[in-house]
Amino acid sequence: MVQNKCNGVMPNWRQPSDYSLNGHVGAVLKRSKKAVVTGGGGYFGYSLGCALAKSGVTVTLFDVQKPKWKIPNGVVFFQGDVRDYDAVFKACEGVDCVFHSASFGMSGLEQLQHKEKIESTNVGGTKVIMDVCKQRSIPRLVYTSTVNVVFGGSPIEEGDEETVPYFPLEKHVDHYSRTKAIADQMILAANGIPLKGGDKLHTCVIRPPGIYGPEEERHLPRTAKNIERKLFNFKFGNPNAQMNWIHVENLVQAHLLAAEALTPEKGYRASGQAYYVHDGENVVFFEWIAPLFEKLGHNKPWIHVPVFLVYIAAVVMEYLHLALKPIFHFTPVFTRNEVWNIAVTHTYRIDKARSQLGYYPKKFKFADCVDQYLKTRPKRRDNYMLFKVLLAFCILCLSLLCFFF
Asked: In this protein, which residues make up the domain named 3-beta hydroxysteroid dehydrogenase/isomerase (predicted)?
């Protein structure tokens, strides 16, 4: 384990935009003694930690990797694995709120690798967090879940927390969604358990869709690379299929409000509750990412491919990944889960978060994030990697030809 505090600006490091507390996230949160953010080395966890520190809370960012951005005053980084009870226990000394955002296997290549690691991190790590909260008498636990705990390819229109059930665990096509659903239920079931000091644990769950924002490193860069490699020049699925997205600042706001709503001053109103949160609007995926095509100098896709062909291609890509794994790793254009996320409507109401938490999402433009990405992204180094991607794509095409003919 390594504890490290850094107050200087490291050369060439980039820091996401400043995150400030809204006025309605008030004195209750600011009286918090100390908070731990698991997954604090990642984009969202780091952003949440910065917002907490700005409010005067002492923050520990807990992760296996250090954030690449400047660590501000009031924040310490604790290097450790969420599956390691001793490390988590040590990091949580004197803490009165844990934000559990650490996870593994969300998308792309990561989604296809290390199923054991996905389960041990998302399920095993969550159990460790709950056990530490119990032993350390930490009264509040906010969990970062995902809308994929209820979505698995069947349409959901304006779903809410009370009427949309969990998607059957055995029917999930990806291990990430399945394990997040298990952890989501574990967190809610842990609400009200007695703590060592005699108090009770108060838990809640935040369920966001895909995250975007300045310096986001998962969705936007991968999509941009596929556009530039001309691997994303077609549409598929229902052309009117809608989905939600959330800007990182809105997701930070939701977590801060949830933590405040787990206090006695707020009547523990969020205790044992789950909340869908997003930017407050439904969008069509290919319309929403249009600014990325435009600013990269590429035409928007106009060819429409039947979704079943894309799904079959995703299946083949996943098997190709397994077959070629001993030789090299390549990131599929889409996984099966990602095909359904784009092709099938799944939208959610945020009325509950508005009424119980006071959540009011700010308005942001995806185009602004694209501009920031293009200004700050590293120089492309496609050469051999591009060759490998194209080779895998050719193998995919040959496989599809064999399948149909």
From this structure: 36-302
Q: Which residues make Cβ contacts (< 8 Å) with residue 207, sequence separation at least 6?
A: 145, 146, 147, 149, 150, 184, 274, 275, 276, 277, 348
Tell me the C-alpha distance between 357 and 234, whole Å: 40
What residues contact 124, with CB distance under 8 A and at least 6 apart? 83
Q: Residues near 342 by Cβ (< 8 Å), separated by ≥ 6?
A: 236, 237, 241, 243, 285, 334
According to DSSP, residue 194 is labeled: B
Work out the mean pLDDT of the chain and round it to a whole number. 86
Q: Are 339 and 314 in contact (CB under 8 A)?
A: yes
Q: Concatenate the DSSP letters of all residues of 161-173 into one string.
A: TTT-PPPPGGG-S
Mean pLDDT, to the nearest integer, of 202-220? 93
Contacts of 170 (CB under 8 A, 6+ apart): none
DSSP code of 353? I
CB 242 within 8 A of CB 284: yes
CB atoms within 10 A of CB 284: 18
Domain 2-216+243-283+346-370 sits in which CATH superfamily? NAD(P)-binding Rossmann-like Domain (3.40.50.720)
CB 187 within 8 A of CB 126: yes
- Per residue in 5-23, pLDDT (tens digit) is 333 333 233 445 454 445 4
Catalytic residue among 43, 46, 176, 373: 176
The pLDDT of 223-239, averaged and rounded, is 86
Residues 324/394, Cβ–Cβ less than 8 Å: no
* Residue 176 annotated among the catalytic residues of the structure: yes
Dist. CA 330–CA 319, nearest whole Å: 12
